[in-house]
Write a structure and sequence with these properties.
Order of helices and strands: HEEHEHEHEHEEH
Number of strands: 7
Number of helices: 6
Largest sheet: 7 strands, mixed
Number of domains: 2
CATH superfamily of the largest domain: Glutaredoxin
Strand content: 15-25%
Length: about 160
Amino acid sequence: MRLLTHRLALRLAAVALALALLAYGILAHGRTVVTAPPLPHAALQGGPLTTAALRGHAEAIVFFASWCPGCHTEAPAVERFAASPAGSGKVLSIDYSDYGNARGFISRYRWTFPVLSDPDGVTGDAYGVAHLPTTVILNPQGDIVAREVGPQTVASLSRALSAAS
Protein backbone atom coordinates (compact mmCIF):
# COMPACT_ATOMS: atom_id res chain seq x y z
CA MET A 1 0.00 0.00 0.00
CA ARG A 2 2.83 2.35 0.89
CA LEU A 3 4.49 1.72 -2.52
CA LEU A 4 1.22 2.51 -4.30
CA THR A 5 0.85 5.81 -2.40
CA HIS A 6 4.46 6.72 -3.19
CA ARG A 7 3.96 6.01 -6.92
CA LEU A 8 0.76 8.06 -6.96
CA ALA A 9 2.53 10.96 -5.27
CA LEU A 10 5.36 10.79 -7.84
CA ARG A 11 2.87 10.75 -10.72
CA LEU A 12 0.99 13.71 -9.29
CA ALA A 13 4.27 15.59 -8.83
CA ALA A 14 5.26 14.80 -12.43
CA VAL A 15 1.89 16.02 -13.72
CA ALA A 16 2.17 19.20 -11.63
CA LEU A 17 5.67 19.81 -12.95
CA ALA A 18 4.53 19.26 -16.55
CA LEU A 19 1.64 21.69 -16.08
CA ALA A 20 3.96 24.26 -14.49
CA LEU A 21 6.43 23.96 -17.38
CA LEU A 22 3.61 24.25 -19.91
CA ALA A 23 2.25 27.35 -18.17
CA TYR A 24 5.75 28.87 -18.03
CA GLY A 25 6.28 28.20 -21.73
CA ILE A 26 2.98 29.80 -22.65
CA LEU A 27 3.62 32.82 -20.43
CA ALA A 28 7.27 33.22 -21.43
CA HIS A 29 6.49 33.12 -25.13
CA GLY A 30 3.24 35.03 -24.99
CA ARG A 31 3.22 38.44 -26.67
CA THR A 32 2.75 41.63 -24.79
CA VAL A 33 0.90 44.07 -27.01
CA VAL A 34 2.16 47.64 -26.75
CA THR A 35 0.34 50.43 -28.54
CA ALA A 36 2.70 52.64 -30.52
CA PRO A 37 3.56 55.90 -28.74
CA PRO A 38 2.86 59.23 -30.49
CA LEU A 39 5.10 60.26 -33.38
CA PRO A 40 7.13 63.47 -33.35
CA HIS A 41 5.39 66.51 -34.85
CA ALA A 42 8.39 67.94 -36.73
CA ALA A 43 8.79 66.64 -40.28
CA LEU A 44 11.91 66.78 -42.41
CA GLN A 45 10.03 65.38 -45.39
CA GLY A 46 6.34 64.58 -45.81
CA GLY A 47 4.18 64.49 -42.72
CA PRO A 48 3.34 65.41 -40.13
CA LEU A 49 1.87 62.01 -39.29
CA THR A 50 0.06 60.52 -36.34
CA THR A 51 -0.09 56.92 -35.20
CA ALA A 52 -3.84 57.03 -35.86
CA ALA A 53 -3.12 57.83 -39.52
CA LEU A 54 -1.01 54.65 -39.76
CA ARG A 55 -3.79 52.31 -38.65
CA GLY A 56 -5.30 49.97 -41.20
CA HIS A 57 -2.04 48.53 -42.51
CA ALA A 58 1.28 47.30 -41.16
CA GLU A 59 3.98 49.98 -40.99
CA ALA A 60 7.77 49.99 -40.73
CA ILE A 61 9.23 52.87 -38.71
CA VAL A 62 12.95 53.16 -39.44
CA PHE A 63 14.97 55.01 -36.78
CA PHE A 64 18.24 56.39 -38.18
CA ALA A 65 20.91 59.06 -37.74
CA SER A 66 23.16 60.56 -40.41
CA TRP A 67 26.30 59.65 -38.43
CA CYS A 68 25.35 55.95 -38.14
CA PRO A 69 27.34 53.59 -40.44
CA GLY A 70 24.64 50.88 -40.33
CA CYS A 71 22.05 53.47 -41.31
CA HIS A 72 24.06 54.27 -44.44
CA THR A 73 24.28 50.54 -45.17
CA GLU A 74 20.51 50.01 -45.01
CA ALA A 75 19.37 53.33 -46.56
CA PRO A 76 19.32 52.18 -50.22
CA ALA A 77 17.35 49.04 -49.30
CA VAL A 78 14.82 51.06 -47.30
CA GLU A 79 14.18 53.29 -50.32
CA ARG A 80 13.92 50.30 -52.69
CA PHE A 81 11.42 48.67 -50.35
CA ALA A 82 9.41 51.87 -49.89
CA ALA A 83 9.20 52.26 -53.67
CA SER A 84 8.06 48.66 -54.18
CA PRO A 85 4.41 47.57 -54.26
CA ALA A 86 4.89 45.72 -50.95
CA GLY A 87 6.29 48.81 -49.20
CA SER A 88 4.43 51.66 -50.86
CA GLY A 89 2.88 53.84 -48.16
CA LYS A 90 4.11 51.52 -45.41
CA VAL A 91 7.46 53.09 -44.49
CA LEU A 92 8.30 56.16 -42.49
CA SER A 93 11.55 57.14 -40.87
CA ILE A 94 12.51 59.05 -37.76
CA ASP A 95 15.79 60.93 -37.47
CA TYR A 96 16.78 59.98 -33.92
CA SER A 97 18.94 62.26 -31.74
CA ASP A 98 20.84 63.42 -34.80
CA TYR A 99 22.57 66.77 -34.87
CA GLY A 100 24.33 65.83 -38.09
CA ASN A 101 23.19 66.36 -41.66
CA ALA A 102 19.87 64.53 -41.78
CA ARG A 103 18.63 66.45 -44.83
CA GLY A 104 21.85 65.57 -46.67
CA PHE A 105 21.33 61.90 -45.74
CA ILE A 106 17.75 61.95 -47.06
CA SER A 107 18.90 63.61 -50.28
CA ARG A 108 21.89 61.30 -50.77
CA TYR A 109 19.71 58.18 -50.65
CA ARG A 110 16.79 59.84 -52.47
CA TRP A 111 14.30 58.83 -49.84
CA THR A 112 10.74 59.44 -51.02
CA PHE A 113 8.79 58.49 -47.88
CA PRO A 114 7.98 60.63 -44.82
CA VAL A 115 10.86 61.45 -42.47
CA LEU A 116 10.14 62.88 -39.04
CA SER A 117 12.58 64.55 -36.66
CA ASP A 118 13.23 63.43 -33.06
CA PRO A 119 16.18 65.66 -32.10
CA ASP A 120 16.02 64.95 -28.36
CA GLY A 121 15.39 61.21 -28.75
CA VAL A 122 12.13 61.31 -26.80
CA THR A 123 10.16 59.36 -29.41
CA GLY A 124 12.95 56.84 -29.99
CA ASP A 125 13.20 56.23 -26.27
CA ALA A 126 9.43 55.69 -26.08
CA TYR A 127 9.75 53.11 -28.90
CA GLY A 128 12.58 51.32 -27.08
CA VAL A 129 15.36 52.33 -29.47
CA ALA A 130 18.75 51.60 -27.92
CA HIS A 131 20.88 51.09 -31.06
CA LEU A 132 20.80 52.39 -34.60
CA PRO A 133 19.49 51.52 -37.02
CA THR A 134 16.34 50.10 -35.46
CA THR A 135 13.15 49.32 -37.35
CA VAL A 136 9.90 49.08 -35.38
CA ILE A 137 7.05 47.15 -36.99
CA LEU A 138 3.44 48.08 -36.26
CA ASN A 139 0.45 45.87 -36.99
CA PRO A 140 -2.70 47.31 -38.63
CA GLN A 141 -4.11 48.12 -35.17
CA GLY A 142 -1.15 50.37 -34.37
CA ASP A 143 0.56 47.98 -31.94
CA ILE A 144 4.31 47.35 -31.85
CA VAL A 145 4.78 43.73 -32.89
CA ALA A 146 8.50 43.61 -33.71
CA ARG A 147 11.71 45.54 -33.20
CA GLU A 148 14.54 44.77 -35.65
CA VAL A 149 18.01 46.04 -34.71
CA GLY A 150 20.66 46.48 -37.38
CA PRO A 151 20.57 47.15 -41.10
CA GLN A 152 17.50 45.77 -42.87
CA THR A 153 17.15 44.51 -46.42
CA VAL A 154 14.26 44.62 -48.86
CA ALA A 155 13.58 40.96 -48.02
CA SER A 156 13.68 41.44 -44.24
CA LEU A 157 11.36 44.46 -44.41
CA SER A 158 8.96 42.56 -46.66
CA ARG A 159 8.92 39.56 -44.30
CA ALA A 160 8.41 41.74 -41.22
CA LEU A 161 5.46 43.63 -42.71
CA SER A 162 3.89 40.44 -44.05
CA ALA A 163 4.12 38.84 -40.61
CA ALA A 164 2.54 41.92 -39.01
CA SER A 165 -0.40 42.13 -41.45
